[in-house]
Amino acid sequence: MKITRLIFDLDSTLYAPTAGITAGFSDRTLSFVSDFFNISREEARAKRLRNLPNFSTTLEWLQSEGLTDVEGYLAYMHPESEANELEADANLRPLLASIGIPKSILTNSQLEHAERVLKKLNVADEFESICDIRDCNFRGKPYETAYRAALKKCGGTTDGTLFFDDQFKYVDGYAALGGVAVLVGTHNGTPLGTGASPELSAVSAPPLHPGRVLRMADIYALPALLKQIADL
User: Fold this and answer.
1) What domain count does the chain have?
2) Single residue among 57, 82, 107 that ends a domain in this structure
């Protein structure tokens, strides 16, 4: 397989899911859901776990429940101070710089969040483009339009572009388009639920040109994986 582009998810893909920023995001999510429904944090956690598999994002789920202030939600989830929750990784930049393939980001968060994280990790200039939730008209992965928007922005095609993500339903979405996706790490969430909308449910249907889902332990397994794919 000839690889011409790499598209990466951002959070828990470029850095470990055990990072402090992940805990901060989870805490803010529970607080928001708790306040939105006027329930306890324990009830909020259980309610989100039941419903999230049937939606692309927590945002989409809350919109189905009546949330209208999308920008307010995004600002609350990703405050300017969030970068303080993430430790710099001195080894990430040399790793990415050693791989001479154009790289881009596809995130279900907003641009400001992506820019903060990439700046903190000191790898912002390693990525040619960022496709954020606004670019996707707030319909993020695993909607087909999200991947298409990212591919259009970076000039890639499913035939030559690898997609990396830490969540089952997001790699499944790219593979459903016939592309090769890579599931990163072991904190992978759940596949898309049976109660998803018909449009999202298409992610689980057999694609016209079946793709593949590979696995790698973390971002530092990238060079070995690329060599493996090149030998296919």
Assistant:
1) 2
2) 82
Which residues are within 8 A (CB) of 124 and not within 5 positions of it... i.e. 6 or more apart? 115, 118
Give me the pLDDT at residue 208, please.
Answer: 47
What is the chain's mean pLDDT, rounded?
93
Regarding whether 177 and 124 lie in a shared domain, the answer is yes
Question: Could you tell me the residue range of the domain that residue 217 belongs to?
Answer: 5-16+87-231
Are 140 and 190 within one domain? Answer: yes
Which residues make Cβ contacts (< 8 Å) with residue 39, sequence separation at least 6? Answer: 33, 47
In terms of Cβ atoms closer than 10 Å to its own Cβ (0-12, 13-18, 19+), residue 115 is: middle
Q: Of 67, 82, 97, which one is at a domain's C-terminal end? A: 82
What is the greatest pairwise CA distance in the chain? 54
Q: Specify the pLDDT at position 120.
A: 97
Quote the pLDDT of residue 211.
Answer: 75
pLDDT for 209 equals 53
> Which amino acid type is present at position 170?
Y
Structure tokens at 117: 């994280």
Sign of CA dihedral 132, 137, 141, 147: negative
What mean pLDDT do residues 134-158 have?
A: 96
Contacts of 45 (CB under 8 A, 6+ apart): 30
- Same domain? For 189 and 77 the reply is no
Do residues 171 and 203 share a domain? yes
Q: What is the pTM of this model?
A: 0.94
